[in-house]
Amino acid sequence: MLVVLGVFFLLPIAAMIEFATRGVGIxxxxxxxxxxxxxxxxxxxxxxxxxxxxxxITSVAMLAILLPTMxxxxxxxxxxxxxxxxxxxxxxxxxxxxxxxxxxxxxxxININISDSILTLAFAYVILVLPYAYRALDxxxxxxxxxxxxxxxxxxxAGWATVxxxxxxxxxxxxxxxxxxxxxxxxxxxxxxxxxLNFENLQVAIALIGRANAGxxxxxxxxxxxxxxxxxxxxxxxxxxxxxxxxxHGVVA
Amino acid sequence: xxxxxxxxxxxxGRPRAGSLRFPFAWLGTVPFLGYVSLFLLLPxxxxxxxxxxxxxxxxxxxxxxxxxxxxxxxxxxxVVLSAASAAxxxxxxxxxxxxxxxxxxxxxxxxxxxxxxxxxxxxxxxTLAFAFIATIGGAGFVTLWLQQHGINIYANGVWLYQLSGxxxxxxxxxxxxxxxxxxxxxxxxxxxxREATANLGxxxxxxxxxxxxxxLFPSFLGCLLLLFANAFSAYATAAALINQGGIIxxxxxxxxxxxxxxxxxxxxxxxxxxxxxxxxxVVTVLYSTLQRRTARWLP
Lengths: 253, 299
Hints:
The complex is a heterodimer.
Chain A: H1 2-20, H2 33-39, H3 42-75, H4 79-93, H5 96-113, H6 121-142, H7 146-155, H8 160-168, H9 173-189, H10 192-196, H11 202-212, H12 214-249
Chain B: H1 21-27, H2 30-51, E1 53-54, E2 57-58, H3 61-65, H4 69-101, H5 108-122, H6 125-136, H7 141-148, H8 163-187, H9 191-199, H10 204-233, H11 236-241, H12 249-258, H13 263-295
Antiparallel strand pairs in B: 1-2
Helix pairs in contact in B: 2-13, 4-8, 4-10, 5-8, 8-10, 9-10, 10-13, 12-13
């Protein structure tokens, strides 16, 4: 049973690699020209760079907006914790295809009045990554006794910025990294919003080039898949490493 | 020895000196609430407003536009696609989850498969579509291999780019999702129940029919609904596979949004989006109700 399903799931991935390494002609040897020609296509490299920039901006913005809010509500405004949780998990119920219908007029306004760069997509992407980032940060925060730590720091004279940045965050560094890696994975795989708002990010570029040159687009798809897979693998190692470190040294203060 | 209630039990801030403390604390949530209102609640409001917008104020014109045959067809296709891929994904995923749950809980097989399921359930969209084109598309690996052995799977037309092809591709991420959401329920089944059934003279059939079945059924149904909602909202995979036409609702929405006809189409897109979100919300609410029923017996 496992073998059959394993074949079913690994086959498309193997087929992608096979397709991307095909040479010209029936019996041509395997070649990596599809992969190397990625670099010579300016549209593609532009889209790759844009997606990586978006991933970075989204992670930073998500942390800047979500992390202080979560810490603050847990310490000072406990009643809002539930509200924040509902708002963060709402994007799971509102599909991206629905959200983009409402975002279209908003982005028309943004493109005219603020900027028409693809990086404005970060505004929408932060909303998309909220559920995953919230769960990751929530798991990290629940392992830290924030109340005691913040009371101790405050009684020693620390301001709130010091409490958040130098006391609490170092104790949940693996959760923060977790949230960032998840955000990067989501942003790199996002297609719906970018496509319908007429921006060309990585996935849109893959789809467009795929209509003309299937080999190159599948090569990019394989590359991005490997990249995300390595990221998520790193995530699982960091998660385990963080837990071990905390167990050995206790609270990092 | 009396326990003194801490006066600062409510917060770690300054002690309660006056009544001015609360407003300042709530200000800390303003950035987040402002951002979410602007980029999540506002677009949702725009969708709802757009669905009821007309040339001269609120109207039901867009809603009645939804009753046109080609739109009704797309809803039917969406429901069929989501139901079929959810059903296949649920059954196969449940069997796979059962195989994992009855095995070694700390074993390598279970960890590898669970991790793989985590990655594969997120592996959707454009990359998945191209993976399937590379596998069983016109020049795909499996297609060519089958042709060499005399089997032409496209003898009656290329079905990969139609509904049946979509169903196959969707099961690729539905099965791992089912494993992930159903495994906790299976883990909650205690071996003592099986032993108790055997003690009382019951067979495997009795166990499944009267003990494990009724306990797992709400969770199974709930997970099925989750898979349905997931397939219903999926857009990227279909968009990458199907270049024109709108056989399912997300494709209709994208056609309405990006057509050059004019504004009227944007409101139809809003009506479609509203209908879609209503369906997804109903399904998700049913899912949480069923999950809560399961949680009564299975932690």
